[in-house]
Structure to design on (243 residues):
C-alpha cells in the first residue's frame, strides 16, 4: 500500500500538472478571499470570521480535486500497467488504499495556503476580535474529512474509465451531486417535514456542523462511512473488471 502511495504521490509532483493544480487552487482562493467583492471576501466582513473560507473551499475542491484523482486508475488502464499492479503480491484493497491516500495527501497539501490567509486575517484584527481556535480546529477537521471523501469518490470514478477527461468531468459532476444534491432539494421547501430529513442526510449539513464548531460522532461517522462505501465500490469494480 505504501509503495503505491509513494509512487502516485511522487508522480503527481514529477510533472507540471501537480504544481499547476496547486497554484490554481491558491490563486483562485486568494482572489475570492482578498480581492473580489462578495460574501467570501475576508476584509468585507469587518470581524475575524473565517466561515467564508470554509464555505468556499468545498466548491473549489469539487472543481480541482478531480484533476488530482482522474489519473489514479484511468492512466493505469491506458498504459496497461494495471495488470502488472494486480499481479503483484498486493491485495486489491491495499492498491485502492494507496491510490486514495496519495490523492488525499495532495488535496490536504493544497490547503496549506489557507494557513497563510488565517494568519494574515488574525494579525489584522484587534485582540478582542481574535479567532475562535476551537471552531477553527473543528472546521479543519471537517475539511480534512471532506478531502478524504472527495478523494475516494474521485478514485472510484477513475476506476470506471481509461479516459482522464471523462474521469475528471464525472468526478466534478458526482461531487457536486453528493455535496449539494440533497441540501439543494431541501432548500426548495417543497416536501414539508421531508425537507428536514433530506437536509440532515446531506453532505453539506454534516460538513457545516464542523464549521459551526460541532464535532458530532454522527457527522464523523457519516464521512467515514462514505469513504468506506466508495472504497468498497472501487475494489468491487477492479475485481469484476479483471476477474
Amino acid at each position: 500500500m505504501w509503495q503505491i502511495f509513494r509512487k502516485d504521490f511522487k508522480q503527481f509532483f514529477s510533472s507540471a500538472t501537480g504544481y499547476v493544480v496547486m497554484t490554481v487552487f491558491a490563486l483562485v482562493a486568494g482572489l475570492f478571499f482578498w480581492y473580489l467583492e462578495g460574501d467570501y471576501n475576508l476584509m468585507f466582513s469587518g470581524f475575524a470570521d473565517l466561515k467564508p473560507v470554509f464555505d468556499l473551499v468545498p466548491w473549489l475542491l469539487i472543481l480541482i480535486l478531480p484533476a488530482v484523482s482522474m489519473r489514479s486508475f484511468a492512466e493505469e488502464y491506458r498504459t496497461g500497467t494495471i495488470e502488472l499492479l494486480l499481479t503483484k503480491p498486493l491485495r486489491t484493497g491495499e492498491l485502492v488504499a494507496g491510490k486514495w491516500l496519495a490523492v488525499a495527501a495532495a488535496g490536504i497539501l493544497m490547503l496549506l495556503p489557507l494557513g497563510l490567509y488565517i494568519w494574515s486575517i488574525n494579525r489584522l484584527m484587534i485582540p478582542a476580535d481574535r479567532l475562535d481556535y476551537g471552531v477553527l480546529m473543528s472546521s479543519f477537521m471537517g475539511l480534512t474529512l471532506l478531502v478524504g471523501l472527495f478523494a475516494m469518490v474521485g478514485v472510484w470514478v477513475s476506476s470506471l474509465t481509461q479516459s482522464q477527461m471523462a474521469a475528471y468531468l464525472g468526478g466534478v459532476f458526482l461531487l457536486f451531486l453528493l455535496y449539494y444534491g440533497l441540501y439543494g432539494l431541501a432548500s426548495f421547501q417543497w416536501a414539508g417535514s421531508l425537507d428536514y430529513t433530506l437536509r440532515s442526510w446531506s453532505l453539506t449539513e454534516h460538513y457545516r456542523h464542523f464549521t459551526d464548531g460541532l464535532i458530532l460522532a454522527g457527522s464523523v461517522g457519516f464521512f467515514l462511512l462514505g469513504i468506506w462505501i466508495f472504497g468498497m465500490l472501487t475494489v468491487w469494480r477492479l475485481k469484476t473488471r479483471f476477474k
Observations:
- Residues 2-241 form one domain.
- Residues 133-158 form the longest helix (26 residues).
- The chain has a mean pLDDT of 85.
